[in-house]
Amino acid sequence: MLIKVPSVVNLGLETIKVDVEVNLANRGLPGFEIVGLPDKAVDESKERVRAAISSSGIDFPAKKITINLAPADIPKEGSLYDLPIAVGILSSVLGFPIPKNSLFLGELSFDGSLRHTKGALLMALFAKEFRFENLFVPKDSANEAGAIKGVKVFPVENLIQLSSHFLKRKSIEPVSGQKILDALPAPAEFDMREVLGQEQAKRAMEIAAAGGHNIIMVGSPGSGKTMLARALPGILPPLNETESLEVTKIYSAAGNIPPGGSLITNRQFRAPHHTASLVGLVGGGARPHPGEISLAHRGVLFLDEFNEFPHSVMEAMRQPLEDGYLTISRSKQRVMYPADFMLVASANPCPCGYLNHPKKICICSPLQIKKYQKRVSGPILDRIDLHIAIQPVDTTEFSDNQKNSELLESSKAIKQRVVLARQKQEKRFENDSIQSNAQMKNTHIKNYCKLEKDIEELLYRASIKFQLSARSYMKTIKVARTIADLEGAEEIAISHMAEALQYKPKIYEL
Amino acid sequence: MSQHNEIGKKGEEIAKKFLEKNGYKIIEQNYKTKYAEIDLVIKKGKDLVFVEVRTKIRENFGAPEETINKKKIRKIKNNAMAYVATKKWNSSFRIDAICIVLKPDYTIERLNHYESI
Amino acid sequence: MEQVIGIEAQKYPRLLKEIGNEAPKKLYYKGNWEEFFPAKAGSRSAAGENCLAVVGSRHLTSYGRKITEQLVTEIAAAGITIVSGFMYGGDEAAHKATVRMGGRTIAVMPCGIDIIHPEYQKELYNEILEKNGLIISEYEGKFLPVNWTYVQRNRIVAGLSKAILVVEAGLNSGSLITAKYAKKYGRKIFAVPGQITSEVSKGTIKLIKEGAEPVSEANDILKFFKVLVNPVKRAPSSQNSQNFVSSGLTKSGSLEQKIIEQLKREPMEADLIARTLGVSVAKIGTALSLMQLKGFINQESGKYYIN
User: Fold this and answer.
1) Do chain A and chain C touch with ≥3 beta carbon pairs under 8 Å?
2) A29 touches chain B (CB under 8 A)
3) pLDDT tens digits for A198-220?
4) Structural contact between residues B34 and B24, judged by C-beta atoms closer than 8 angstroms
5) CB–CB contact B115 A28 (8 Å)
6) Which of A138, A194, A251, C227 is the right S-S partner for A114, CB 3.0 to 4.6 Å?
7) Closest-CA residue in chain C for A484?
């Protein structure tokens, strides 16, 4: 008897239909085999399925069972075929038909219950596109799949429950009208008002958040770089619907959606350490999986101690910083992961960290400093729009009013401005393929950043005086555009351009 | 003779009787090649069949079916080919397995005949 | 031809000879020796007769650098020869300022005459030679610097000079060693006062306490040299060409004026200006950029200065 149970395979963010063909042969020695390029985890599903069926109180058939995962030329990984295999066997034992237009996905536990499985959202998207009506997924993954409207998602708890559903004894209620829960809320560790002083840095953070600009902070240890970065999530605008789906897809593929979670609606903040591996940071591996920079898609990638990151990482980041995605090529497959993140980098000015410190003395020689600063590759620095120097703050010099954080602007207030600025940008780029000012290419700048004669003159003068490169010139215009948006201005004014010049690349005088 | 060999012998006798009852003609018993031994070589009409007999007392320590793995099957196949070559048999053949479970008193609990494993 | 001067030679620096048995037996040099120490002894107008040693911490603060540039530029313009040790930081700032101004400078190396140390200051080295400066050392050939040669070098720096100016120095710094030699040889010591909290002011404050003369303007030193021999014609400064944005300072009471008021007191970062004036940092940033473009102020390592 041949039974076909449809399921899917996720290659990167691409989904392909897989037919789990279950053959129970009457002739031949009883046995259980899986063919069709399974990896170890798929192969082991034999044992899980056997145990799960037995512990559900159903006799495991003593027949020659062969499972084929078709198409057989695509490598399949993971434990997500447990459910389709079990359903195929049960359908033969219990004699129920496999419902039409349905997809199955899920990992089994020995006791017959289903576990949270990665990729449910990707399957739901696939189901919607190719008109599959019913999805059978583990209960814990149902919210994730249920985020896609127009597909019936059945939350399956265990094999017994599923069998009674198919035998029409007691049906499972599909999840419907799912309230969208934030799968991974990203609370900021600090409120901006807790950061004393650092007015210019805070302002730069606001601009970066509003326009999606990359930013680098250079300053001594303890000057508050990390605190500023950690406060950033609090002023980021929420993800819009398309962005939210994009991000959730990546997290779903990586298996990073917590059980019961649905869509991710907050911008994510990723802070990998500089000792993380290249593959962990940019993604890859023999079976490609998304790395930290993809998990930071539409969010923030915070690289503390930026110059400590190995050269290979910096080089690997060039493509995503330019194009917003990353291609991982392997001999067997090529996958593309989106990686359009806002880079927030922090660095010490010199090896000892105290160059230009008001109190402490730097003990580095100019040569050491030069070498240290050179560790950040030029092309990467070129793609950073905002450069700020951070000086340690001596709060003992503050007046009581200045020290009272209640009087400072809260993250919430800043966020309001940021959100408005983002809305302006969304409207502006309606017909373009970009979302924020930071992503503007030269043609966009021509269209949306018309400069009055005197502003152009100012910028020209500045480019000579401050020796701005052609790219810095363009970056300054982009930043000015965001500053204008924050103010609600339609056109870039002189004041916007002048402020933007504050965040130009700094050259550290020795 | 140790117990497991005794059980094996007993099983083979049971299998022989079973096969004869089903119209097979026993050609060889415990035919030895340089690889190993073929438990039974039988014939029914045009079919030449090599039979591996597995016998166990009770199934507490696993079914006899489980003791036949791919390696064993390959071994039987090699044996069969060696046999076919020596006997100059030029028609098709197949490999069967007979799994027997005995009660402790050596009476039959179940007997399964799997064709073409 | 080996360029070397023995202690018995007529051309041997008179002041250096005065330090007695500590004077180096031989001096190797590069550059035009006659320009500084002509054969005719006692020519008081020769460049080598009026030397000021300028020394400072290797870890010069931006304040120290600014002061060095300011003072040295004026002093060198008056025809005084600036002597220093070619180390990075204070020495390098002094040489650089002199060369840029077009003045005369002598660099005393802690290593063999054929080596440039530190090597990455090669550009400055060549500049000194091109601009008629002098490089000297008591070591021949490719002798590598070791820690005691730095100290030995300092005695030549002190010995060549009539007076010594210490810009910034920590306690136990090489600059203080030079000052110690200067005192021993009976040379005048000048020191620039700094903030008492700064590590690199501790040495200069100690010197002042011990009797060194505090310096607040170039004239303090020029008065000591009295005679202004062959004032060097001042090279056109690049700063003059900065007023390209036609508008000048806006009227009094404006934000720009207020910022100028603040910066007159002390150089500040944008954050501090915003905090002190109670104006948003966005507005301050705008004003600072414009003022910088107009050439009123300048920025260095985070702080803004009045030009």
Assistant:
1) yes
2) yes
3) 999 999 999 999 999 999 999 99
4) no
5) yes
6) A138
7) C282
**Cis status, amide bond into A71, omega within 30 of 0:** yes
Query: Is some CB atom of chain C closer than 8 A to the CB atom of A199?
Result: yes
Contact, C127 vs C154, CB < 8 A? no
Q: What is the pTM of this model?
A: 0.79
Q: Which of A26, A27, A29, A50 to mutate to test the interface with B (most CBs of B within 10 A)?
A: A29
Chains in contact with B via at least 3 Cβ–Cβ pairs below 8 Å: A
Residue C111 pLDDT grade (very low, low, confident, very high; cuts 50, 70, 90):
very high
Whether the CB-CB separation of A161 and A173 falls below 8 Å is answered with no
* Burial of B2: CB neighbours in 10 Å, binned 0-12, 13-18, 19+: exposed
**Closest CB from A402, A495, A509 relative to C300:** A509
Contacts of A33 in chain B (CB under 8 A): none
| C-alpha to C-alpha distance for A401 and A408, rounded to whole angstroms | 9
Chain A touched by B13 (CB under 8 Å): no
Which chain B residues are closer than 8 Å to A28 by Cβ? 114-117
Residue by residue, DSSP assigns C82-150 as EEE---TTHHHHHHHHHHHHT--EEEE-SS-TT--SSGGGHHHHHHHHHTT-EEEESS-TTPPP-HHHH
List the one residue out of C253, C271, C251, C270 whose CA is nearest residue C261: C253
Question: Which residues of chain B fall below pLDDT 50?
Answer: none
Q: Do A27 and B68 touch (CB under 8 A)?
A: no
Say whether B115 and A30 touch across the interface (CB within 8 A). Answer: no
pLDDT tens profile C55-98: 998 888 888 888 899 899 989 988 899 999 999 889 999 999 99
What ipTM does this complex have?
A: 0.83
More confident residue, A483 or B60: A483
Handedness of CA A395, A398, A404, A405 (dihedral sign): negative
Chains C and B touch (3+ CB pairs under 8 A): no
- Mean pLDDT computed over C197-203: 87
With a CB cutoff of 8 Å and minimum separation 6, the contacts of C210 are: none
**How far lies B20's CA from each of B14, B93, C28, in Å?**
10, 18, 117
Is some CB atom of chain A closer than 8 A to the CB atom of B117? Answer: yes
pLDDT at C243: 38
